[in-house]
Structure of Ras-related protein Rab-8B-like:
Amino acid sequence: MSSRSYHHLFKILLVGDAGVGKCDLLAKFEEDKRQEEPFVSTIGIPFRVRDVRVGGKTVRLQLWNAVWDDLTTFTSSNTSSATTTDATRTAKGVLLVYDVTHETSFENTRRLRKVRDEGGLGEVVIMLLGTNAHYRGDDRQVTWQRGKELGDEAGVKFLEVSAVTGTNMEQALLTITKAILAKVGHINE
């Protein structure tokens, strides 16, 4: 390894409707990170940095909060289009986020699949995340089974997560990181 403290650097976009919990996820990823290492300031920049260990190697993740612009492009919150275009073009992964308590956000995740199927995302790794996994029963509009079925149908990994309880937060980062490493030929998934 060179003087940098990681072996690989991957940009990952958190994409989904406004209000599905992307900011909460970023805050939780950052909170978990602070317990392990010093905080890396990203003031004024719409992404957070998080290091994960996979196969004995450190992988640095840049986690970008993004929102839908239209069916073919994304725009990052509070950035210029030039920054957004670069972030989108160089992203290796997308965490496609919906809220289990809002059916519409779940249905809207199908837009990304359409973009991917039309070749608009290149070789990016996509993972489907249902937020607010701590809700049960009548509070839910989307069951775990429906999320799993959509993930299987789309050929992507699926997890439910909760920024409130921490459920599957670390697993989500490890899962997408392993899938990206497998895609670029650095590990067997």
Q: What stands out?
A: The first helix runs from residue 22 to 34. The helical segments are 22-34, 81-90, 103-108, 110-117, 144-154, 169-183. The chain has six helices and seven strands. The longest strand covers residues 57-68.
